[in-house]
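User: tokens in, sequence out, please.
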């Protein structure tokens, strides 16, 4: 069913804005739900004000790429360089899919996907008669993710819709990669900054609304049901621990997986400027720095302490024995593999 979405999205959307207002409101609502889960803690999630890299979801009929086709598929999949995903892809973790679903005269094809313990994304091709090469400015969709038992485990929907349960992923971003008449390629990326994503074996992804935004800021949305059966990828994880101690800084968790590393640390004090969080660097033994694009911040009422969770674009396939964590205002913390 096609309908105008002026009541959901502002017609005068700023073209330089990364995420439309309606989607941002949905994010804020989910973050508020997280904050209300504990009366003793205050949580806040931040998205770095730049475009995030594209990653992917696992779907059925996945085919691992051979070395001969890896680079070509990576280039077709990613519109933004991401060192974690690139390394994972070079080790055969990118999956190629050709699965199409049709509803309400709109066709969605899942092209490529990648998934690990903390990052999720997909690349889709959307075909519709009203897509115009010269007049499509932005494209996004609303979805729900269900586990093998049919329980909703994640959702990205408008604030006019109910969400069952808590969300896994945050920091979601859409990248409109290629637009043709009647066809557009879209990439989606999200991260799990506070939890580990469960296995998607037997899970289902249901896309229920697609939003089209033209160059004038007008929004057209198509409601339908595009359901995809998911399968679990081969997810690998490895733990890192602190080798030294740093005054005022405590490592709570550091796990690296196929194409990302979730890291949580506690500091004495309160973060006044969230932009400083994104200056936190993960440094390898070659001196290369990796930075997160989204963060979860939890302020502990007792002791004036703050717990920060980040996901870095770093891969388990790098196989480096030690890393450095550099937090602004603190000495470097050395991380080593937990044998």
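Assistant: Sequence out:
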């Amino acid at each position: 069913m096609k309908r105008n979405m002026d009541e959901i999205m502002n017609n005068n959307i700023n073209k330089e804005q990364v995420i439309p207002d309606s989607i941002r409101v949905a994010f804020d609502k989910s973050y508020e739900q997280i904050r209300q889960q504990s009366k003793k803690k205050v949580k806040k999630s931040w998205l770095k004000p730049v475009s995030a890299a594209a990653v992917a979801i696992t779907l059925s009929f996945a085919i691992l790429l051979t070395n001969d086709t890896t680079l070509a598929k990576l280039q077709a999949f990613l519109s933004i360089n991401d060192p974690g995903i690139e390394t994972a892809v070079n080790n055969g973790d990118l999956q190629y899919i050709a699965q199409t679903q049709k509803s309400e005269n709109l066709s969605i094809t899942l092209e490529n996907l990648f998934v690990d313990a903390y990052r999720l994304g997909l690349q889709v091709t959307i075909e519709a008669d009203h897509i115009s090469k010269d007049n499509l400015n932005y494209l996004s969709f609303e979805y729900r993710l269900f586990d093998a038992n049919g329980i909703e485990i994640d959702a990205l929907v408008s604030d006019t819709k109910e969400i069952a349960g808590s969300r896994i992923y945050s920091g979601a971003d859409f990248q409109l990669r290629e637009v043709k008449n009647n066809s557009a390629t879209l990439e989606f990326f999200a991260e799990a900054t506070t939890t580990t994503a469960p296995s998607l074996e037997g899970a289902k992804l249901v896309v229920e609304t697609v939003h089209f935004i033209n160059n004038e800021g007008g929004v057209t949305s198509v409601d339908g049901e595009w359901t995809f059966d998911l399968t679990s990828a081969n997810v690998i994880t490895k733990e890192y621990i602190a080798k030294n101690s740093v005054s005022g800084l405590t490592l709570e968790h550091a796990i690296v997986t196929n194409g990302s590393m979730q890291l949580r640390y506690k500091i004495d004090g309160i973060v006044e400027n969230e932009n400083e969080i994104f200056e936190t660097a993960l440094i390898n033994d070659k001196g290369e720095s990796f930075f997160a694009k989204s963060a979860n911040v939890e302020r502990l009422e007792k002791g004036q302490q703050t717990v920060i969770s980040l996901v870095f674009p770093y891969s388990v396939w790098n196989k480096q024995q030690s890393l450095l964590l550099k937090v602004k205002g603190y000495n470097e913390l050395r991380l080593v593999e937990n044998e």
